[in-house]
């Protein structure tokens, strides 16, 4: 679940209350070039937090900016209120303005698509590389937010960065959120979107033989479940999956939960809040669909797992990698020191995010035979 809030921060993002998921023509003046040759140095102003004595300076600056908005903590709010809080994306954007970091023009075009799912419709935002006709490999991307908050805008930088660096069509999925749509609605929506892509790849300049899934936090959980459901339903499986600090276990007494219980932007209290609103009972959080470490992982595609050190979810990322290896899955896990949950989309500010995006892109390009 993870607040993946905004991770993505790379930055063309805005807070949820400022833009709707259905706005798909992204203003390039607000877009971060994740391929920039140099990441400008952004410095924090205060002491390192007690929960993150190893935090990198750029990461600390983002956390300080996020704290400066003085929003009510999410666990004290109801979801409709929480969705109006500032996000890490807002913090990155403001730091860019303050440090005069330019936003180069986008290298992708975007369009929106509504598709039918059981009980309604969901929105897809499709990113297509400019100045080429394809066919392109396709990445189906699932944003974070604990299945409760965040949207396509908050994670726009991650989706855009992958499209640009891989040279792929990225289909970002606006699955329905809880508590309006509780467990397992998001999971079913995620699979429905994947099936749509497998059946309609050519219509979006995609190659139906080269489809991967990527997700952050709650979205990482969804991406892995899509691979499991594709296997069980005997349809085309992804050629690769990239799971970025995925939600993979219900054990909130794990080592990283204890060590980083008060970390930001994701803490233990927030994870408890996500479980409360997405599931009907604590028992559901222990089901294999949420606690992936209990799932049948055999026969899944090659997998890349990216974790942040200063993150309650770090332990379960490691455990998931171990469980996958035991199941015979080809898995490659990389841990980034000194950064927090949500760092992946912050390539415009945080050097480790730039490296993580390049690493993910390289893994995907290898899987696509590029």
TrEMBL record:
It holds the Pfam family Abhydrolase_3. Residues 139-344 form the Alpha/beta hydrolase fold-3 domain. Signal peptide: none annotated. Residues 23-37 have a biased composition (Polar residues). This is Alpha/beta hydrolase fold domain-containing protein. Residues 14-52 are annotated as: Disordered. Gene3D superfamilies: alpha/beta hydrolase. Keywords: Hydrolase. It comes from the Bacteria. The keyword Electron transport does not apply. InterPro entries: AB_hydrolase_3, AB_hydrolase_fold, GDXG_lipolytic_enzyme. GO terms for molecular function: hydrolase activity.
